Each structure stands twice: as structure tokens, then as C-alpha cells.
Amino acid sequence: MQKLTKGLETKYKLATFLAIFTIAFEVIMEVLIPKIMANVIDVGIQNKDVDYVVKVGLLMIASSMASLFFGVIAARFASVASLGFGRNLRRNLFAKVQDFSFANIDHFSTSSLVTRLTTDVTNTQNTYQMIIRMCIRSPFMFISAIVMSFLINARLSLIFLVLIPIIALPAFFILKAAFPRFKELMKKYDLLNASVQENLIGIRAVKAFVREKSENEKFSHSADELRKAQFKAERIIIVAMPLMQLVTYLGIIAMLWFGGNMIIAGSLQTGELVSFITYLLQILFSLMMIAAIFVMMVISQASIKRIVEVLDTEIDLKDGAISETAREAPELADGSIRFENVCFSYDNKLEDCVLNDINFEIESGSTVGIVGSTGSGKSSLVQLIPRLYDAFSGHVIVGGNDVKQYALKTLRSQVAMVLQNNVLFSGTIRKNLLWGLSETSGETTVDSQVDIEQFCRIACAHDFIESFSDGYETELGQGGVNLSGGQKQRLCIARALIKRPKILILDDSTSAVDTATDAKIRAGLKTALPGTTKIIIAQRLSSIMDADKILVLDHGRIVAEGNHETLLKTCQIYQETYEMQIQDQDCDLEAN
Q: Can you give the pTM of this predicted structure?
């Protein structure tokens, strides 16, 4: 629990303490009521002393009101504390996920992280509230009621010593058996969330292929599996409650039997028996609450373990021991890049390397193209430059320093990537374009509409933005659903250019635009940001033919490098790709 409460704000810690403090007074007032009631019966009613009955009765009412008051206050403090705890936990979890490297993210599915941030946190938050209230109230009530009953009559109190083990032992074994079932239940929640998320993201594909019925069946299956897992988990828990009620009724019967005989024998008074029954109910109710706490803790234990798993995840990409050179230069000296004997594996196993023995050098400000068949390692290679992943072996040198020597923020702020999957966020087009800049104006170099429009024109995005009625203030749906694929790509390119990086990486980022627009963007990139190193991954050779250097990858290795003319003469893979694309263009022309 200490890991879960780390960073909890002082006001919520205070609310937790005040909840515990007021609960103690609530219990004290509640435990005094049966003793006062016994005095009313045994002294006031038995002696027909009306004044005594009224006086002590008012005291009992005052105790009840005080207990109610402290109970209400305690409930409020506990609610404030638990809600603050949930907020704090979600914040810490989200912040941890934001620090994850790509490798860390690959370890958890998206749906699993969503479940942990929602369902698991809610379960843990409810448990926290129950711990504050019941873990203090129930044991305190249990001990206080036993003490009071022993003070009244020690012999009759021995009944409790028989009843308590009858409740405690079966409950322990039931709860122990329940934990693995609840752990399996949370996995079913993950699968259900995965089904929902996948379907909502791909809803257009679902409708395009008329797969609604199939997706409904798939979701119904996941929901049914969740229902079965929940029934299996809770079935064993619900056995505990009837057992406790049975023991409670048996205890009342035993209390009436033995207590009645003691009243006849003159060793116990009627009021004391009534108070004893009340204390018995308080004790057994406390035991039931303690059992309920354990049930809740069993349910939440699976959630807590899943949350702690995220919080305990070791971030495999950290700011390294920054060299003195890097300390003196808060930014990259230039956009030069050098790979020295680099190998890379997603699971850090030598036999599974997707890149092997990569060696090349790129001068600052030059334009480099990367080509290769699907799965040749093009995207994996460029992701090593901003340290989205770390090389398994070898060195990646950027701006004269190993990337591991830079602070991650320093390195990534100078490298802009346009990924294969275009990611836009809810908000206006303007906010999305400025999204890559620091929120503090001190680091912002673009401060006017003219500058934004300049880069949007280079990315061939300005015209279609202006075609919207609200222009740059047009609201985008989640993921930019109201834009075409080509429009998304051009906005992402403009967003990267506005960042004014020292290194610009375009990972097949013009695949959804026509060749004429692609040519305009390439022409604009030549003049824009002349000192920026540009790395372009493309399937169309026309996109990189005029690059200063072209790297050809095949099965995770660089098999050739040079300019377009050189590769046409020396690289068979490049020749075949070029001839195939030329033939495709000729076929298209003939068809037209």
C-alpha cells in the first residue's frame, strides 16, 4: 500500500487521519449505548424510577446522536480520502506510462493498461475507503464489545470464544481459494476492453466489410466469458455470508438459553442479557465486516498486483551518465548521425536481432533515403536515433555524442518523426500543429500565424485547411477522423517542420498522397530548414531519387549505399525495385 499512496497530497492524508479519529469516537459512543440501556432496564424500570429512566434515556439518545454525528463526519472524511487516493493513483499510473519506452509499452497491451487505470484503480480505491472505515471500526468495535461483555458477565462471554473460530476458520479458507479466481476475472476484463477498443477504432472497417454481426458475436462471447468468470469468483465468496448469519442466529439462541437460566438463578439481570445480545450482534457484525473487508481485499488484491506491476516496471530507457560535452551543449551540436556496428533486437536476444552490423554515416544537413522490402528493418533503424528503442550492441552517435549520453528530453526535442501511423489529437488544427512545441513560450520559435502557414504550405496542407469554414481553428475528432489519410499525413509533416528540428525523419509519410503532391513536398523540404538532416523512408523511389545518399536494407542489413545513379549500376535489389515501379507507371499511363 505504501507504493500506492506514494505522493498522496497532504490534505488527503489529513482526511485519512481525521476519518480514523472520528471513527474511534463513533465506536465509543455506540458501545456505550447497550450498557446505558441495561441500566435503564435494571435500575429505572425495575425500580419504577421515572426520573432515572428519563435522565438515562436522554443520555442514551445523546450517545446515539453523537455516534451518528461522528459516523457521518467519518464517512465524509473517508470518501474525500479515498477519492483523493484514486486520483493520486491514476495520476501516478498515467505518469509512469508516459515514461514508458516503446519496449515497456510492448510488454502491456493497450486494453490491459486501460483496465488498470480504470477498473483496477476503482477496485483499489473502494478497498482503501473500506480499510479506512471498516478496518478501524470493526476491530475496534469487536474488541470494545468483548471487553464490555466481559465486564458485565465473564461466564456468559465464553460463548464468544466458541463462535469466533467457527466464523473465522471457514472464512479464511474461502477467501484463500477465491484469490486465483479474481485474478482470472481481471484477465477477462482485459479481453473485453480489447474487444471494445479494437472495434471502436476500426468501426469504419467493420462497416465497410459488413462485419457487424461477427463483431457482435465476438463481443457477446467476451462478455459471456466475463460473466462466467465473475460468477465463478463470487460464487465461493457468497458462501461466507449465509455461514456467518447461521452462526449469528445460533449465538443468539445460545445466549438466550444460557442467559435465561442465569436470570432464573439470579446471577444475571434482564437488562444485562439484553445488552449482552446487543454486544453479541455488534461482535458478530464486526466479524462479518472484517470478513467483508477480506473479501474486498481479495477482490482488489488482483487489481493491486496489476497496478504495482506497472508502477514497478523498470524503465529500460533512462537518461544516461551525461558526458561533459553534452552538459556544456544543451542542444545537439548538429544533425550528424553515425551508426557503429549496431545490432538491435526487440526482446534483447542476439538470435532475434532485426538489425545486424549496421554501419553508416550521415552528414549534418544532408538528405538520406532508406529503401527496402517490408520487414527489412527500416522503421526499426530510424527509431534508434531518438532512442525510442536502444541498440542491443554498438553505438548510435548523434550530434557528436552517443545518444545514451543525452538527456532524453534534449535528444527528442531536436528530432522530429512523422510515423507510419499518423496520430492526431482532439482539438483544433492549430493546437495539433503546435503540439510538438514546448508549452512554455521560452522554447517556442513559432509565434505567429504567418510562420505556421509557411510550414503548412511546405507540407501542402495550407490550402485544404483554409477550405474548412473555421480554417486553422477547425476542431478535429479523436484521431483526426474527419480528415482523409493524405490530409493527416500532411498535417503531421507540418507539425514536425514547425518544431524546427535538427533531424527530421519521415517514415513512409507521403504514402497516402498523390505523386504530384509528394513532389511538391519534397521540393519544399529542400528549401525549408536547410541545416536540418532529413531521413526519408519510402516505398516509392521517386520520393528519394534526389537524396544525397540512399541506404538499401535487406533482412536487417545494409546491402548497399550511394546516390540514385550509383545504386542503379551496382545494387540488384535497387535495380529490380526501380524497374518494377517504372513498369507500373507505364501500365498506368497505358490504361489512361
A: 0.68
